[in-house]
Amino acid sequence: MIFKKLLAGVALSLLAVPGIAADAPVAMIVAQGGLGDGSWNDTANAGFEAGIAETGLEGRAIESNDVVAQGEEIMRRAADSNFGLVLSLEYAHGEPMEGLAPDYPDTSWAIFNQVRAGDNIASVLFGEHQGSYLAGVLAAKMTTTEGVEGINPEPILGVIPAVKSPGIDKFVVGFIQGAKSVNPDIEVKVGYAESFGDPTKGEQMANAMFEGGADIVYHVAGGTGLGVIAAAEASGHYAIGVDTNQDGLAPGHVLTSMVKRVDVATEELIKAYAADKFPGGETLKFGLPENGVGLTEMEFTKDIIPAEYLEAVEAAKAGIIAGDIEVWDVSSQGYPDFYN
Amino acid sequence: MIEQILASGVVLTTPILLAAIGGLVNRQAGIVNIALEGKMLVGAFVAIVISAATGSWLVATLAAALVSMVIGYGFSLTITRLGANMITAGLGLNVLAAGAIGFLMSYAYGSSGTLRLPDVALLPHVFPQSVESVPVVGQLLAHLDPLTILAVLAIAVLPFLLGATRFGLWIRATGNAAPVMLAVGLKPKLLQEASTAFAGFFAGLAGAQLALASIGIFNEGLTAGRGFIALAAFYFGRDRPWQTAAACLLFGLLDAAQIRMQTVGLPPRLIGALPYLMVLVALVVSQMRSLRRTQ
Questions:
Q1: Whole-angstrom Cα distance, residue B253 to residue B238?
Q2: Which of A74, A159, A295, B76 maximizes the CB count within 10 A of its CB?
Q3: Where are the membrane-spanning stretches (chain B) (predicted)?
């Protein structure tokens, strides 16, 4: 299937005027989990489609069953097929991209959630730690609120990350730091699901945390997290969604979602590329100040959240933007003393 | 705490147990079924699609079992009639199942990882919510679904079916001495095919249980290696129903326990590996025992 898509890409690029980079079609390599994940890939794809619609460029989303192991192969074939810009959503493609980009000086490359060296590579970073901090502030405020159904008096929260890695622990540590800023004695239970695609495991882990006194569980686990949300709905407690607005998956039981605007990033990259201003060699940051991350509007839960909590979240946001609050970033600073 | 571990452990045991039931009968007939994982995945996919389309968990479960049964039968033909190596064919089927589902998902639903359909009917709970007040097993009973009960019943009657019925004895004779079966005028290949279809049926049920027990979402990683855990379980149980069920339960309970141990701050990687480690230890111990017996 990829082969077909690439062939289509070759055919398209033959029609395009060769030599002028910004006319060559655009490719986006879909990460593990695939399209339809209602999360990272889908959001990126929305921005990708908006970008190609706006610029009039031709574009293809490339999918593969073995996207990690075949990473280099997929990227080389995309460049050989005259795609002018190749975006990869797959984290594991960073290293091979750095290695192969010099072989394709006329192709523009983009990678997410990491910084890679190369004059034709744009690195995109998100401030997930900052967005998670806000989620932590809100959750810590909520967890001791009296008179809210599904909330118990104990100051206990939960986080279910998929795997132990700096890219994921960035969320976890930001969340813990935000929660502790509200209540230094708060307990945050952390349980790794060891999978991005096992909702059954996610559900069981969330149940274990709810039984242990937690009433709000933040998931950073893709498809596994769908089980966390299902458990929150079934038990009457709360989950916090991640990457996209997941509030509607179990209305009233997803307190909020930590949204990561990868769609803004993909769209801007394509527009910059079309205007011949591709930020090769640069690192783009999409943090709180850039509206690259943030919490949702809490469409289904705003009635149970006291206004002062939302003000506290806004104050934390302003503090982070102003630089008064520094949120620990595991991906660039390593692990802090309060979390190993 | 014990209450919850029991309840959660049973939830985690059922899909493995259902798959292992089919696998052990299959192995008694002389076929090692590596493809349980793939057939579980097919079962889960069919269950979600049919449940969303019909709104009936029963129709969805039966459809999942039947589709996996037909696939299991077809798979056995490559081994019995065409002489394919059973390990290679099994691995091939796992790859094929994952690939075919991936293709169907992107072709029919425009999605490549997760399939979320509206109005998926989930498995009902057998007992009313009020049984929750029963001490120790209340939680477990309140979440009990029909497929878990079916699995327990199957384990209860299998020793009789395999040990005291004509068909059961034929199955076992096929696995132990196929030429003898031929000599007495029976058809061992046919029995092997039937047992593989049976394994497919139960793997389909396992997939349906995984998909419909509580989440109602299909994900390409949904089975998460449970088909291979089932394989380990019936090896450990030496194809005997009770011992196999015990191995499945051991794994399910350990998995439920490790989830809880993690949240109190023990190192996650180590704790996460615990259930697999214990199964390994159990395999070694059982092997050493049987060696001692033969000496």
A1: 20
A2: A159
A3: 6-25, 32-51, 57-79, 91-109, 147-169, 190-211, 273-291
Q: Determine the Cα–Cα distance for residues A104 and A87; give it in Å rounded to an integer.
A: 14
Candidate from A1, A30, A200 with C-beta closest to B210: A200
The structural architecture, per CATH, of the domain A128-258+306-333 is 3-Layer(aba) Sandwich (3.40)
B114 near A CB under 8 A: yes
Between the alpha carbon of residue A236 and those of residues A252, A293, A296, A305, B86, the distances in Å are 9, 27, 21, 16, 47
Q: What is the CA radius of gyration of chain A?
A: 21
Which candidate in A3, A64, A70, A207 is best for mutational testing of the B interface (most B CBs within 10 A)? Answer: A207
pLDDT digits (tens, 9 = 90+) for A109-158: 999 988 999 999 999 999 999 999 999 999 999 999 998 999 999 999 99
Q: Residue A86 — φ and ψ, nearest 5°?
A: -120, 115
Q: Which residue of A has its CA nearest to B225?
A: A198
- Chain A residue numbers with beta carbons less than 8 Å from the beta carbon of B15 are 200
For the ranges A2-16, A44-58, B150-164, the lowest mean pLDDT is seen at A2-16
pTM value is 0.79
Q: Return phi, psi of residue A309, to 5°.
A: -70, -40
CATH 3.40.50.2300 segments of chain A: 2-126+262-286, 128-258+306-333
